[in-house]
Amino acid sequence: MPSGETITLVGAGLNGPLLAIGLAQRGFRVEIYERRPDMRKVRMSGGRSINLALSTRGIHALTQADLWKEMQTIAIPMKGRMMHSVASELTFQRYGKDDAEVIYSISRSELNIALMNAAEVQGVRIFFQQRCSGINLKEGSLQLRDEVTGEGRTLDSMVVIGCDGSASAIRSEMLRQSRFNFSQQYLNYGYKELTIPAGANGKHALETHALHIWPRGNHMLIALPNVDGTFACILFLPFEGMDSFAQLNTHSEVVDFFRARFPDVVPLMPGLAENFFANPTGAMVTIQCSPWHAEGRVLLLGDAAHAIVPFFGQGINCGFEDCTQLLELIGQHRGDWAPIFAEFEKRRKVNTDAIADLALENFVEMRDRVGDARFLFRKKVELALEAKLPKVFVPKYSMVTFHRIPYATALERGRVQDRILTELCEGIERVEDLDWSKAEQLITSQLLPLEIAA
């Protein structure tokens, strides 16, 4: 690597520090500029810290950075979904084929703090309350404004990577270029963060090793466990109309709504209404753009390039996979930035577009279908087919979550497999009644064996 070359990252969220660690390990000097205060010193306001679902792609990236063992101390394995009916009946649906296939609930803020600490150990310098107010794309010079003093300055850098999220200041500047493509699509749904406090003796009040979900057709509540015995809950409702945030304006309306839709959770949330009104209502957006790079000096990465909605639990995993693949390309091209950036976008964009579609599809599944008996039966058939033909038929959820199969491949094969499942499940009620000869013929004639990356 070129000795002494400094790479400037904008944004000290999750992707910025992880990428910085990999760059520092490869001999680069790295500086990060972050608009917000240092969350290790200043308590951040609530309502924007949805727990994350860490799975194979993210774990691989943390392993590459020698951090996964440490991060397991702040993560809880979740073996499947625990569905709660309106009548408070519980149904458990395993995520994978066995207990080795789990996802991990991890606090966004705790993970962010751990990554920043690890980056500083590697010699990365992080500057807080430094807002990026512009960038000269040809020269790679950043305009920064100190959020405390209001003073502005210009910072010259050989390479600038925008890790500054869905509201990226770097992307805003790239929008000024001719032939820059950009689209954003907001859901007509919002989210509200809530909390289930720890029970007696700091224990979880619900099953610890599950993602809890209350699916209710046009809305839902989910809960992810924290290591301190609490659950981070997220309520998803339309902004307007029936069963919407627009209808919940008073403490009594909130409590009555929960008693009618989520009765078993009300006794677990003694401060429900206060919690509801203390936290903001967030919006969810899908962002797609191109190109992700400019002048061989500037690159967008993570949500800055491809924000997605959270319903497949892949936001963090997709961003961390960005870091992994960019670092691989840096090793291959020896710091020749123009081909690195071009190849990075070529590899990633088709896959980030695919996971954006998959996330929107999974929203409908989580909200409308996970409590449906036929849907649960299809899931059983999926696992049976995987057990019979493990290299050919891998459930779509597993391809995305428990393997590093490209997202575009998972999307394409998932659609083929959905058609096969529809045909095989028609007219039967039990896995034992499956026509195995027909199943094998349909699968082997339409799907080639997978090259599965662990």
CATH domain fold name of the largest domain: FAD/NAD(P)-binding domain
Alpha-beta content class: alpha/beta
Count of helix runs? 14
Q: In total, how many beta strands?
A: 19
Tell me about the biggest sheet? 7 strands, mixed
Taken from the alpha-carbon principal axes, the silhouette is: globular
Extract low-pLDDT stretches: none
Give the percentage of residues in beta strands.
15-25%
CATH superfamily of the largest domain: FAD/NAD(P)-binding domain
The count of domains is 3
C-alpha termini separation: 29 Å
Strand order of the largest sheet: 6-5-14-15-16-13-17
Question: Rounded to an integer, what's the Rg over CA atoms?
Answer: 23 Å
Structure in words:
The chain has 454 residues and is α/β, with parallel strands linked by helices. It has 3 domains: 6-77 and 104-182 and 284-362, FAD/NAD(P)-binding domain; 184-283, no CATH class; 372-446, no CATH class. It has helices at 15-25, 56-64, 68-71, 108-121, 169-174, 251-261, 272-278, 303-306, 315-333, 337-369, 373-388, 396-401, 407-425, 436-446, and strands at 6-10, 29-33, 52-54, 75-78, 80-84, 90-94, 103-106, 125-127, 130-136, 141-146, 152-156, 159-162, 181-196, 211-215, 220-225, 231-238, 281-290, 293-294, 298-300. The chain has a 7-stranded mixed sheet with strand order 6-5-14-15-16-13-17, with helices on both faces. A 6-stranded mixed sheet has the order 8-2-1-12-19-18. Helix 1 runs parallel beside helix 4 (108-121) and helix 1 packs parallel to helix 9. It is globular and about 65 Å long.
